[in-house]
Amino acid sequence: MELTIKNLSKTYPNGVKALDNVSLTIPQGMFGLLGPNGAGKSSLMRTIATLQEPDSGSIHLDAIDALHDKMALRRVLGYLPQEFGVYPRVSAEDLLDHMAVVKGIVNRNERRETVKALLEQTNLYEVRKRSISTFSGGMKQRFGIAQALIGEPLLIIVDEPTAGLDPGERNRFYNLLSEIGENIIVILSTHIVDDVRELCRNMAIINQGRVLYAGQPQAAMRELQGRIWERTIEKAELAEYQREYDVISTKLLAGQPLLHVRGQQLEAAGFQAVEPSLEDVFFSAIQGQAAQSTLLPA
Ligand code: ADP
């Protein structure tokens, strides 16, 4: 099974080009769509989920033409949107049951089994009688996964799922996502590099509506081998270093700026070679795009 996206573009009525000729092939397993806020991730997720129309391009899940046969795609789709909106004051069990009816599971016994299995899988069975409005962020996200799993989907889309979760909740959510299995396609849209590093076998980096990298996280890190250097500097030196070097990120380490730069043989300048991280890959891709666009004629 494979999701094939070809030449997808979308410009909103206000002139923002949210998707700029996006082409991606997404295989089975967990796929990370990584990009900063405003990159176009939600626009892409909503388009794949058949909730909005692109201006041009195509999306196929194997033989299903998602843009022309929306119902066929929806039958095999599970979607966990960024915002669920307001939760009604009903119990988790009742809401899941209702959603199963909407998804077409009309047989009462089958539905009872499905709802019970999903509540157990997402570790919400103990709290099934509680209203979702009383759930923590992590519990709400696990409920979101439970409803996305109704009807054994082949494609699951989760949009920014770990934003706002504390570390414990995030771990539980990670474990749940990785259990969902390698036999379906799970697309995880996020601006959090750790989400992708810990969970995804394949990924794409997007920014300003464009795909900057598509491939395996490990391969991306290998490509940067020997080219990432770091050193701490004084705060007052920051501007000078940014002029002199190809700085891809600046972090404070105990109050002192720690720079990561791209380059070759920078020992003499006091830098140390580092093993490239996925964060370096991410910042390097985005920095490369920024550098390129300043070179392009206006
Ligand atoms: P992300 O999910 O990566 O944060 P989005 O897809 O939400 O990115 O947004 C991409 C760009 O499109 C942003 O500049 C955003 O402000 C803009 N945008 C998103 N939705 C709309 C809309 N409905 N109308 C106009 N602009 C939009």
UniProtKB/TrEMBL annotation:
<dbReference type="InterPro" id="IPR003439">
    <property type="entry name" value="ABC_transporter-like_ATP-bd"/>
</dbReference>
<feature type="domain" description="ABC transporter">
    <location>
        <begin position="3"/>
        <end position="233"/>
    </location>
</feature>
<dbReference type="InterPro" id="IPR003593">
    <property type="entry name" value="AAA+_ATPase"/>
</dbReference>
<dbReference type="InterPro" id="IPR017871">
    <property type="entry name" value="ABC_transporter-like_CS"/>
</dbReference>
<comment type="similarity">
    <text>Belongs to the ABC transporter superfamily.</text>
</comment>
<dbReference type="GO" id="GO:0005524">
    <property type="term" value="F:ATP binding"/>
</dbReference>
<keyword id="KW-0813">Transport</keyword>
<protein>
    <submittedName>
        <fullName>ABC transporter ATP-binding protein</fullName>
    </submittedName>
</protein>
<dbReference type="Pfam" id="PF00005">
    <property type="entry name" value="ABC_tran"/>
</dbReference>
<keyword id="KW-0067">ATP-binding</keyword>
<dbReference type="InterPro" id="IPR027417">
    <property type="entry name" value="P-loop_NTPase"/>
</dbReference>
<keyword id="KW-0547">Nucleotide-binding</keyword>
